Amino acid sequence: MTVSDGRPHLNGGAEATESSTLSLDDGDIHVCQDGPRDAPALLLIHGSASSTRSWEPLVPLLTGSHRVIRIDLLGHGRSGKPVDRGYAIPDQARRAGAVLDRLGVEHAVVLGHSSGGVAATALAEQRPDLVTALALINTGPRLGAFIAPQSAAIGPEQWPPTDEQIRRLASTAFSRAGYRIPPELLDEVRCMTHHTLTATMQATRAYLEQQALPGRLAPLGKPLLVVFGEDDRRWRSSSAADYRAVPGAQVELLPGLGHSPMLEDPARTAVPLLAFTTIHAVRAD
Predict the structure, then answer these.
(1) Is there a contact between 69 and 108 (Cβ–Cβ < 8 Å)?
(2) Contact 117/227 with Cβ under 8 angstroms?
(3) Residue 144: domain span
(4) Does residue 201 lie within any of the structural domains?
(5) Are strands 27-34 and 41-45 parallel, antiparallel or unpaired?
(6) What is the domain-level CATH number for residue 26?
(7) How many domains does the chain divide into?
(8) 8 A C-beta contact, residue 69 and residue 44
(9) H-state helical runs in 24-88
């Protein structure tokens, strides 16, 4: 079933977005689609405490050459938030693959932001037939690259958090203090439950503890682009060099941008992405 999402868009709503909810075996997944349906598929996976809306400024720059598919991972956005389902990274990746199967997508370039890049990596491990190439935006390669937050965690007794608590939590997602975080993104944190927030963050940590991403990606033989805002305040941008252990990997640093370059400067972020995805995309039959 396809329904209009009826929500304001960060990109100004220049183009209509097809919004739907797919009922999978272990949860409902919200999906947004933009661009020609016969164009090469590009799957966008958001990071922790975010949603499909974090991509909205970037989407109009991608739809000229791609069928852009965005999903809310389970526990986020308009997807289900069950307490009795797994939020481990392999589970989230499996659901992303199931969404593409339901949409009839046989090949896709997968783009992940932050922990969404971890889920993208797991999807490539599970479904090498489906994933043709990977692009990671400010995805830390290993736990040692993480910059510990200075603000205290929000406990369950403080849930739902206030705007000020969310702003403190999200402040390091941008290159400079005082950046005006779009209120729509504050809403996305508030609509999570404390359980889904903590479970998804713990899942990323557990996956990286098992093995760093370059070690997972190297044997897959998939084309890889890594884009990093050079002023990231969550993951050390110098750690992007770790991905050079993956044969043929391209690493692009964006000076003056932080952890969320697709929000801070979508036009500059789109340049390396389009150069990469256009080469490695596979058009639908």
Answers:
(1) yes
(2) no
(3) 2-280
(4) yes
(5) unpaired
(6) 3.40.50.1820
(7) 1
(8) yes
(9) 59-62
| Bridge partners, 4 (sequence order) | none
Read off the pLDDT of residues 48-95 as tens digits, 9 standing for 90 and up. Answer: 999 999 999 999 999 999 999 999 999 999 999 999 999 999 999 999
Cα separation, 228 vs 260, in Å, equals 9
285 in any annotated domain:
no
Q: What's the N-to-C CA distance of the chain in angstroms?
A: 23
pLDDT digits (tens, 9 = 90+) for 115-125: 999 999 999 99
The token duo for 219 is 């044997």
Distance CA 193, CA 152 (A): 18
**Given the structure tokens 């999570």, which residue do they identify?**
192
Q: Give the pair of three-digit tokens for residue 80.
A: 């289900």
Q: How many residues does the chain have?
A: 285
- Residue 31 in contact with residue 5, Cβ under 8 Å? no
User: How far is it, in rounded angstroms, from Cα 279 to Cα 129?
Assistant: 18
H helices present in the chain, as ranges = 59-62, 89-102, 115-126, 163-170, 183-190, 194-210, 213-217, 261-264, 266-280
